[in-house]
Structure of Glutamate 5-kinase:
Amino acid sequence: MQNFKWQRIVLKVGSALIAPEQNGCSSRYLLTIAQFIVRCRAQGIEVILVSSGSVAAGSHLFPEDKPRSVALKKAMAAAGQMEMMATWDRFFDFPSAQILLTHGDLRDRERYTSVRDTIFTLLDHGVLPVINENDTVTTDDLKVGDNDNLSAMVAAAADADALMIFSDVDGLYDKNPNLHTDAVLLPEISEIDESIYAMAGCATSAVGTGGMKTKIEAAEKATSHGITTFILNGFKEQTFNLLLEGKNPGTIFLPYEKPMQEAVHWRTHTASEQGEVIVEGDFSEPLDENAEQINPQGIIEVRGEFSVGDTILVRSDDGTKLAKARANYSSCLLNFIAENETSEFSDEAQDSIGPIISDEDIAVLEKS
C-alpha cells in the first residue's frame, strides 16, 4: 500500500455481502474480500475480520414464517455461524479462529483485557481472527446490536491502524442517494459532528441490522482512538484494487490528532454505565484533575443499581453529562447517604467517605 502505512487493520463485512440472497453463504462477493485479505497479509499487514451474517446465512434452514421469534433468530445464528466460518475458512491456506463476543465481554475490564490478549496471540501466530457478536446467547442488556459498532470496539481493543467498513454503499453522501439523484459522495471527513449524523439517513440494506448511522457511530469511536476509518462498497472489486494502490475509493474519516488513551477510550466508548449519580456543584475545573469535587455530600439522586468498580455516569443537576468513571461506592451506600443527608450520619460520613469516583479511572465527557 503506497500511501497507507498500516500494520494492522480491521475489516467489517456486512450481512448483504455474506448472504445477499438470504439463502446461505455466497462466494459471489466474499472471494474478492478473501483475496484482499490474502494480499494484505502478503504485504505484512495483520488483518482482523469482523463478519456479520450468521442469521442471514442460517435463515434458509428454518421456516419462513414471519414475524420470527427471538428463539428462532438465535437458532438461525447458531446454524449460520457454522456455515459462515466454513465459508471463510475454505478461502484461505492459513488458519483462522472464531471469536464470538457480547457487549458483556467488552464492557467488563478484565474480560476486555482477555479479549485483547487473545487477539494479539492469534496475530502473533499468523492466525486470522474472525469475530462476530454471539447472537445465540446474547440478551438485550448484553448485546452491542450491530457489527459496525462492534468492529470499532474491536479495532480499539486491537490497537488497529485502520477500520474498513464494507457494505452495499459507496460511502457517506450529503443526502440519501436512493432518494436524491444529486447526492454527492463525501470523500473525506475530518470531524464528526451533528451535521455528519444528519446526513446518515436510514439503512439501505434489507439484510443487515445496521444503517449509515451505526457506521458514523463506529467511525466516531474508532477515530477518537487514532484509527483511520473507511466506509466502502464491498460489492465492487475496484474498491479493493484502489485500496491496494493506496487510494481512497469511498469515504475516509481522519483520526483525532490527539487520540484518547486506551483506558479512557474504553471507559468512554465501550464500557456501559450501570447507573447514574446526579450531583450539584460548580464544575468549572477539569474533573480528571479534580474528581474530589464529586463527593457524597453533593448527591441529589442515585439511579440504577451498581457495585463498587462498576462504570457509572455522573451528571450535574442541570442534566449535563460530566463523566463516566469507576464507582468507588455502591448505589446502596450512596442512596443511604443521599436519603440521610440531614442526619448525624451525614456529618460522620463527610469525614470518613471520600470522592464517589477516582481521578485515576475517569473519562471526562463533553458537555451535552
Residues 230 and 252 are 5 Å apart (CA to CA). The chain has two domains: 8-265, 273-364. Residues 8-265 form a domain with the Carbamate kinase fold (CATH 3.40.1160.10). Residues 202-210 have pLDDT under 50 and may be disordered.
